[in-house]
Amino acid sequence: GAGVSQTPSNKVTEKGKYVELRCDPISGHTALYWYRQSLGQGPEFLIYFQGTGAADDSGLPNDRFFAVRPEGSVSTLKIQRTERGDSAVYLCASSLGAGGNTEAFFGQGTRLTVV
Amino acid sequence: GENVEQHPSTLSVQEGDSAVIKCTYSDSASNYFPWYKQELGKRPQLIIDIRSNVGEKKDQRIAVTLNKTAKHFSLHITETQPEDSAVYFCATLRSGGYQKVTFGTGTKLQVIP
Q1: Hey, are the CB atoms on B98 and A107 less than 8 Å from each other?
Q2: Residue of A nearest to B98 (CA)
């Protein structure tokens, strides 16, 4: 596709359930980021992939959050035992990769609501 | 880690006036400074960026200035229009082994017709 694609666009889940959020980056982009954005706030860094490996996962809030990118393309953010405080828009971005100052392109985000 | 502070958090200007948003950062190794515009319910989109070897960059009504010594950079919008109303985020990035974009907290700009 032409841009970063995230699915689903909206997800409502019950407290305690497990959710998966998918990001399909721009073809050829080796760098992939996940951010979380609460209402009125800036994007909060969660995790960064360079290829298949998580180069920096320091932003993951706790061990309920996990992300994978097994083939260096599509990434899945997984949240276990969801809590109401997890409600936010989860943004994915991709860029060409390390070694240069390249623009990060964002997806439309997945709005997660935990009820 | 990097810390980016952005001011003001909200800004209201009359149509046609100028708007200035300022950011400071802590990591002296940061060398790329993009600005993103996020309209309500939409994704952040890059509007202008500046690299550390340049002090100023302009694109039509938008300009960005960078002072690496003081570790601050600013976004200037001239002749503001209602469609400029949005939330603006500054960000920093350091090249090298890996890249991690660090965002400021955002400025909600309202242009009053």
Answers
A1: no
A2: A98
